[in-house]
């Protein structure tokens, strides 16, 4: 009975496969919005103000960062929790493929969230004259929460890797 239960639990990891594949549709939706934004920009490129152009470019960079985050989560998550990817020799292979464990994936996600939040905060500050001060304050507080959280996760990860993070758990 125990063996059957363990085999079923181990096999249940495949439930994640369609979820990771579903992220590719989110990536496709993001690409559609990216090119839609470019299409809206193109006819007005010569008449748009520099500050407005910078806001559009920041939105495009934001979408690119989110896209990269999706790819990292999709591929690394699949490799870490479902099955190793079998990529033929001679085919292009991402340098980080197979090297990112769940801890480093967590750190990459945290760093990406901080970068995305930074870009969003920069967009907010470029439009600060139209945003009430209390909202600006909350944007900064939320961003700093992301920064402190990512920093804290990095410190804990480093302590754990150096063996100083032992909290009495058996090996």
TrEMBL record:
Keywords: Cell membrane, Membrane, Transmembrane, Transmembrane helix
Membrane topology category: Multi-pass membrane protein
Pfam families membership: UPF0114
InterPro entries linked to this entry: UPF0114, UPF0114_bac
Record field: transmembrane: 12-34, 54-75, 109-126, 138-156
Recorded family membership: Belongs to the UPF0114 family.
Record-linked PANTHER family: UPF0114 PROTEIN YQHA
Annotated protein name in UniProt: UPF0114 protein NBRC116187_13230
Organism name: Halopseudomonas sabulinigri
